[in-house]
Description:
This protein is α+β, with helices and mostly antiparallel strands. It contains four helices and seven strands.
Amino acid sequence: MLGALALGLLVVIVVVGLGMRAAPLLGRELFTITGGSMEPTIPIGSMVVVEPVDPDVVAVGDVITIRADNGVVVTHRVAAVTDGPSGRTFQLKGDANATADGAAVPAHEIVGRVAVSVPWLGSVRSALAEPAGLTVAIGVIFLLVAADALLGRLAARPWTSPEVVAEARGSR
């Protein structure tokens, strides 16, 4: 049982690590959601995979990620699309927000459309990116493996066999 938990944790670490390396090679970007503006659709701590998208095909209802000129990254739903003399702009709104965002976003700020979101995985990714988080995860794996081995050895002891237990009960 504990060995299976250790294996599961190891698989999560490997999958997150491979995903972080593979996404850019596939033209995708990964972002961790740190605010609650898209809840419950995309909870805090989720990882979103963002794929490139032509601004001409972005439609109302799409969830897109933008990188503003000041470097701030936001993932919100498209509430309105406007084609004007200065080009296409997008009015965004977080699902949990009562009102739309302040200013319309120009097409050049779009990073892409959210292809998939995975709850909690962004938090795991953030933790594993820190030396302390990776150390704790590896330590937990080793502890689970050691505990599984110890429990296996204890279960194999003769005093736990059904014959020994029955004999002990019979001698009382």
